[in-house]
Fold this protein.
Amino acid sequence: MNNIKNYYFSSILLALFMMVNIVDAQIISKGAEWKFLDDGSDQGTAWKETAFDDSSWDSGDAILGYGTINAGAVTTVISFGPDENDKYPTTYFRKTIDYTVGSEESYNINLLADDGAVIYANGTEIARLNMDAGIPLYSDYSSGNGNEDSYTLMEIPLGSLVEGTNVIAVEVHNTSATSSDLGFDMELNALEFATVYVITKGAEWKYLDDGSDQGIVWKETAFDDSSWSAGNAILGYGTINAGTIQTTISYGADPNDKYPTTYFRKTINYTKGSEKSYVINLLSDDGAVIYVNGTEIARLNMDAGTPLYSDYASGNGNENSYTEITDIPLSAFIEGTNVIAVEVHNVSASSSDLGLDMDIIASPNAANYVKHIRFGSTDDPLNGVTITWRGIGTADKIKWGYTASFDEGEKTPVQRSNWTGYNYDF
C-alpha cells in the first residue's frame, strides 16, 4: 500500500522516520554496450524511434568518446571527423533493452555527457542536459561545457518504459567545433520501495503457557526452548479486535484466576544491511516487555523495573490495532542468530482475553526519500513548512524539535490521495 503524506509545522525538520527501503534495480549499467553513429551525417528525427534500423551502426562499450574524460577512461574511441578544428557537432547513440515493468516508483539516470545531451525513450524525450529548449538540430552545439568529472543524476517520468522492447536513444552535442573531447555513458535505474522485515506479522513463535515462573533466564539466547509449544500469531485467547487468534493458548484451569504472564520466543537468522533504525509494530493485550538476545529493547503497559511473573499490566492493552515503537537501539540485532523474547502480562486475573503479534522492520535513513519540502504557508510565506514523502506504511510519524532529542514532540501527518502522477491508495 503506497501513500503520500505531509504535515505543516513552524520549525526545522530534524528527523523523519519511514519504514521503507529503496531498492535500486539497474536497467542499464555504466559501461554498457551501445550502438553509435559517428559519420557526421544529419539523422533528423527518425533515428530515435523504436522501429529505426540501426543494424549498420557500430557498437562499443561506454565510456564512448574521444579525448580525455576525467570521470573515467574512454573505452570506445569514436570519430570526430577528418578535421580536428571542425569536429562533428552531434553523435548518435542507441540501445535496445527488454524490460519487465514491476512495482517501480520512479526511474533515474546517472548521465555522463560531455558536453550536451538529449535522451529519448521509445521516441519520446525524457531528459536533456546542457541543451537549449526546442527540437535539437544536428548542427546545434551544447549550451555550455559538460561536466566530464562526474555523472549527473536526473529523475525521469515513471511511464517512460513499457513492457517488453524499449529503445533508449541519446544524441550528444559538442560545445564547439574545436572542443578537445566528447564523452558519453549513462546508467538507468528503476527505484522501488521494499519493506525489510526482520519478523513479519503472523509469524510462528514458541510459547510457554503452563503458569510457571520462568524468572529471567528464559529470555537469554542460550536458553533451551525445545520443549515449548509453537504456533502462529495472533497467539492468545478470547477476542482480539485487531485480528483472528490463530493459536489459542492456555490461561490455566480457573477463568477467574488466569495466569498473569505468558512467555514467547522466536529465533531468527539476520543479515545486517544499511539499516539506520528498527521499528516494532506491536499488538499486545495487555502489557509486554520485549528482549533481543537477553536485553530489553521495549515495553508497553508495564511499570518500570524488572518484571516479575506475578506482575499485571499497568493498564488495558490496545486490542484494536498495532502500536508503533520506534526507539529501538540500532545495536539490538547482531549478524547471524538472534533471539526475540516477549513476556505478555494480563491486566488482571479475570481478564477475558490476551493476545500477541508483532512485526519488526529494519528502516533506512529516510532523509533521501523526502520528495518535497516547501517553506512558508498559504497565509504567511515566512511561517511554516510542508514536507511531503512517499511511504508504504499507514502510521508514519514526524518527530521534530530544535535539538536531537526532538523536544517539540511527534506529529501525525496527513495521508493524501490526489497526488497527480503517482499511484497511491490514500
